[in-house]
Amino acid sequence: MTIVLLVGARPNFIKAAPLWRAFSRIRSARTWLVHTGQHQHPDMCGVFFEELGLPRPLRCGPPEDMLAQRPPTRAALAAYLEPLLRALQPDWLVVIGDVTSTAAGAWAAYRTGVRLAHVEAGLRCGLMHMAEEQNRILTDHLAHALFATESSAVANLLREGIAPERIHFVGNVLIDALLQTLPLAEKKSWPEVLRRYALPAQSILPDKAWTSGYALCTFHRAETVDNPVALQHLVRLLQGIGQQMPLLFPVHPRTERRLRQWKLWASLQACPSIALLRPVGYSDFVCLQKNARVVLTDSGGIQEETTVLGIPCLTLRPRTERPITLQYGTNMLMDLQHPNAILAQLRQWWSAAAPFPTPPRPPLWDGQAAERIAQILATLSLRERSTARSEYSALP
Ligand code: UDP
After folding, report:
1. Which of 64, 80, 337, 355 has the CA that lies 20 to 30 A from 113?
2. Using CA atoms, how far apart are residues 135 and 300, in angstroms rounded to an integer?
3. Can you tell me whether residue 120 is helix, strand or coil?
4. Tell me: the pLDDT tens digits for 217-243?
5. Is 118 a catalytic residue?
6. Count of domains in the chain?
7. Which of 293, 290, 295, 286 has its CA nearest to residue 331?
8. Which ligand 1 atom is at minimum distance from the Cα of 299?
9. For the whole prediction, is pTM greater than 0.85?
């Protein structure tokens, strides 16, 4: 069985690590790790390959100078992937999540007749203007094997008419990665992580104010950071939070670019209790999540990780495609338009006498999702081959 495992952006690299290991354990499998180059900043890419034990990938995408000018489109990435898939003729193209590279891979697989497997299939927030939602729907409807993380995703796929035999409820490869990384993260000290990633202009820290802990935040979605008004609201909110509790903010390159473009960077940097950091490596970021008193985010994966870690998480989005995180009680959705309600909720969590109770883990979030996926792909390939053989022998 030949597999092409496609990655392009930070969350893909993290989720690819357990898949790569599981595919490597199947003796009959030959796996190619292919990177579109969508994220190529060393803090968003190289650091994850080194730390998570991924091999050097085959690079297949637009040249770096072109990518540095503007983010690639799905069509541009797909145009590079098609010849590669034609040349390799894999049994499976495995794509992960909802980034541009995911949908580009799906499109290239469709055009070349390669069978497509989608890891993290079926998640829906119902907001069609979001690029991630478009990527999810396109990919799911082109996929032959769909691997779901939660039961709502299975229900979404069935409702959209996907054949039940294509859908496999396997658990969550991000949680595989989290559970594999946790022992290392637990050995780390968060003040040390903070000092290592703090941006040079920050006179950090952590000083006395940080002894009671910190809030952690990340933001990178177009809806939050590509709109100057929303970004201004966010900066004001973060300044308000900074007045009440120390705040750690590892800044995504896209967010930094926008903050600088709209002249909001300096005012954030001037806040003495907000520590701006470079994007953080995975085990260091898990250490920061584990030790945070509260998390504030617009990320998809962080909603899931905080659910397993039992850290209260406020997600600044109108809806989530990961409703199980709401059901398990760690995650709450709030609107950037209501800063006072956000501050009140954070204060309530911050001042709670007892730590947040760690909820039980959602079904199959047990660290074995990648193994299940590898076994299912191997079984499907065997079945496919024996069907092809029996059709061949039936020829007159
Ligand atoms: N993450 C990280 N370093 C950071 C911020 C996030 O390693 O500075 C990890 C985080 O633990 C999670 C993943 O990146 O596993 C989430 O990626 P992101 O928020 O970029 O994408 P999304 O999950 O929204 O698709």
Report:
1. 64
2. 14
3. strand
4. 999 999 999 999 999 999 999 999 999
5. no
6. 2
7. 295
8. 24
9. yes
